[in-house]
Amino acid sequence: MRPFDLLANAGRAREIAVVLVRNGFADLLQKLEPPAGWLQRLVPKPRARLTLWERTRTVLEELGPTFVKFGQMLSMRPDALPEPLILELRKLQDAVTPVPFEEIEPVLTAGLPDPIDEVFSEFEREPIASASLAQVYRARLRATGERVAVKVQRQGIRKTIEADFELLLWFAKQAHHRIEDLRPYNLPVIVEELREGLERELDFRNEARNAALFLLQNPDPTGVTAPRPHEDFSSRTVLVMEWVEGRKPSALEPGSPLAKDVAQRGASSIFHQILVDGLFHADPHGGNILVTEAGRVCFLDWGLVGQLTRRMRYTLVDLFGAFLQGDSAQVVRVANDLGRVAGSRVDTRQMEREILYALRENFNPATGTGQIGRAMLRLLHIFGKNGIEIARDYALVAKAVLSVEESGSALDPDFSLRASFKPAVDELVRERRDPRNLWRSLRQSLASSIGRIQELPGELQRVLRLLEEGSATINFQHRGLENLDDSINDASNKITIGVIIGSLIIGSSIIVFSGRGTLLWGFPVLGILGYLLSGLLGVWIVIDILRRGRRR
Q: What one-character DSSP code corresponds to residue 436?
């Protein structure tokens, strides 16, 4: 973000700074080098001491819906952020005060293919749910008489999110360049990735397609379901879907036959989605699940899903196997297949020690007891810390597994995550070892290799022609010069001010020696004003130079 963008959002930037200071992050702000005098004008006193991670969550809650959503999305990056922060961010609740229907009605009208009265015979104007991005209403379709849920995006939410993400990106860039301890996390890249993910989530057509695809390939429609979307009435800002009557899992009696059945069915479905279908609900916590009177498990909110290719699923099964056996060396070998190694070579011995410690702390391979979800979070963080860039969907798998483990344990004290994912793992292993699939994969590899060999002479000829014509170019990328542009601009501004000061001194001297104009103490007033202005500018430049020197 350029400086004038920060000034354009000065009101919101100051609000963010106030919240940070109040929660004990004044030292962080100081390192970001805010405009002079900012911190001195921020007067709120820091609150009682909490942990760093608790204060981070509190800051996001106080900054409003966009930042709550940002924190929830950050909780899906266990590869990039510490496990305690991930666990704290998962406590963020995406529930906000609803706005009046009058503010929602223009969005609803614009998002429907026909006027509201022509689409719905009934429409309750009081929302049944309200979140940071949208509100949900109950209605009845005029054409069929079916009861439906209508999800409508909040008015102006895109503009709010865009402004807040500009500020987030500015803070992230400042922190990345000026705070050495934060550089390994590459905050600007994380913010950009989260912005792209939120853009996809703001298009409700994606949610409709995800739910429809799940229903199409759901192997257990009598036990597990999702609200069926009415895509003919849906758009980017409005989603019309089947109304599902049910209760939250937290309303069930823990340990009851129904609670145990719900835990088993929900967990088995999630692992089938992950390992067999390759498209899975990425946030299956209790708030996104309903249990119908018939005992069916209904997954709500399909705006955020993960997708795994066949090869990614095979690698994930290898990771599960090495993890359950407590084989840290095999976990490291699989990790190199999970992602791309960035920078220098990975220290495998160091990784093995860290992984072994994480496994012993969270999971006992001998007895099969422990917190598998938390152990997976630790593993992904170890991978990221050691330079292995993990695909975002693997991080979504870890978060989904943790949610399943927590929800299942709350419903059934004897819940076994290992038993829940065994059927899906066995099915994927059978598919992987099927001779027909092996033969098909071999044929595809041979065909691809032959095609590349056939293209090789043409590619060589093209390269030789470029060399012959002198059209070949080599591009160099300079690193470590990120702040060069700011330094040049700062120096140019100081030179310009210096020229102005010199001009003022010369002009004022000419006026003083001329002795013309209104006099003050025997000297022309205009000349005195010129001397004073040049002196003030000179003092300001000296103070700024000394201040920047101390910061370095």
A: H
Name 230's Cβ contacts closer than 8 Å, sequence gap at least 6: 141, 148, 240, 241, 242
If DSSP codes are grouped into helix, strand and coil, which group holds residue 291? strand
Give the pLDDT band (50/70/90) at residue 522. Answer: low
Rounded CA-CA distance 390/367 in Å is 29
Contact between residue 111 and residue 100 where contact means Cβ atoms under 8 Å apart = no
Task: Clarify whether 283 is annotated catalytic.
Answer: yes
pLDDT the model gives residue 249: 92
Beta-ladder partners of 242 = 148
Give the CA distances from residue 13 to residues 17, 99, 239, 443, in Å, rounded to whole numbers and listed in that order: 6, 24, 33, 58
Token pair, residue 95, equals 């529930």
Helix axes 417-433, 310-325, angle to 10 degrees: 130
- Helix ranges restricted to H, 292-369: 310-325, 328-338, 348-362
Classify residue 81 by burial, with Cβ atoms within 10 Å: 0-12, 13-18, 19+.
buried
Instruction: Write down the pTM of the prediction.
Output: 0.70
Could you give the CA distance from residue 186 to residue 83 in angstroms, rounded to a whole number? 17
The residues spanned by each domain of the chain are 3-89+163-200, 247-433, 437-465, 492-551
pLDDT tens digits along 136-167: 999 999 999 999 999 999 998 888 888 888 88
Choice among 164, 277, 283, 393 that is catalytic? 283
Phi, psi angles (nearest 5°) of residue 229: -80, 145
Q: Is the pLDDT of residue 35 over 60?
A: no
Q: Point out which residues pair with 229 in neighbouring strands.
A: 241
Long-range contacts of 199-203 (CB under 8 A, 24+ apart): 201/133, 201/303, 201/304, 202/133, 202/153, 202/157, 202/158, 202/161, 202/236, 203/236
Residue 420: Cβ within 10 Å count: 23
- What is d(CA 359, CA 31) in angstroms, rounded to the nearest whole number? 36
Q: Give the single-character DSSP code of 163.
A: H
How far is the C-alpha of 457 from the C-alpha of 451, rounded, in Å? 11
Amino acid at position 141, single letter? L
- The pLDDT assigned to 81 comes to 74
